[in-house]
Amino acid sequence: MEESAYLTGQILLALPGIGDPRFERAAIAICAHDEEGALGIGIGHTIDGLGLHELLGQFEIDPGAAPDAPVHFGGPVEPRRGFVLHSTDWGGQDTVDVAGRWALSGTIDVLRAIADGTGPSRWLVALGYAGWSEGQLDAELTRHGWFNVPGDAALLYEIDAERRWEASFATAGIDPRLLASGGGTA
């Protein structure tokens, strides 16, 4: 398999001391990264007091079979826009395959399918996203702030949100408690 300079399908982790409180201990599932920019969905923090049932109610969707799962803080861009990261066993009108590891849907059809029990087998819901313009993430990756690990569906669906940051570092054999909060110069 050819190594790509792009991070689509990987997990981007904020290093201690990133310097932006919006991304402190962030774990971001990168869903698109190419020469035009990047888009990721935060998977490391949930929104206090907001569950899936309340979100479905805002769209007048009966929660039906859906558990009242937490809603994730997807990122600071368009915080009222919803996204669902999910297994590749379901596809809707706008579903995007993310490097064969998971899929991303951003329209209401996926919420309806989850509620009626016909949706993807595994999923998480987020509001907002993290976005980078052309070359922005590439430039940020040359400075202290971010670390990436291969995307693993288990990190998305089997680990609680508040543990995903540490668990993602652990996949690379790193204990984040031992990381310095600043970079040096050579």
Describe this structure in words.
With 186 residues, the protein is an alpha+beta fold. The chain has one domain: VC0467-like (3-Layer(aba) Sandwich). Helix content is 18%, strand content 33%. It contains five helices and ten strands, in the order ββββαββββαβαβαα. The chain has helices at 52-58, 108-115, 136-140, 153-157, 164-171, and strands at residues 10-14, 27-34, 37-42, 46-51, 70-73, 77-86, 96-98, 102-105, 123-132, 146-150. Strands 1, 2, 3, 4, 5, 6, 7, 8, 9 and 10 form a ten-stranded mixed β-sheet that branches. Strand 7 and strand 8 (102-105) form a beta hairpin. The radius of gyration is 16 Å and the shape is globular. The N and C termini lie far apart (33 Å). This is UPF0301 protein FPZ54_01610. Pfam families: DUF179.
Query: Which CATH class applies here?
Result: Alpha Beta
Largest sheet data: 10 strands, mixed
Count of domain modules: 1
User: How big a fraction of the residues is strand?
Assistant: 25-35%
Report the C-alpha radius of gyration, rounded: 16 Å
Point out poorly predicted stretches.
none
Which sequence of SSEs, written as H and E, runs from N to C?
A: EEEEHEEEEHEHEHH
Shape: globular
- Assign the CATH superfamily: VC0467-like
Helical proportion? 10-25%
Return the structural class: alpha+beta
CATH architecture: 3-Layer(aba) Sandwich
Arithmetic mean of pLDDT? 93
User: How many angstroms does the end-to-end distance come to?
Assistant: 33 Å
> How many beta-strand elements?
10
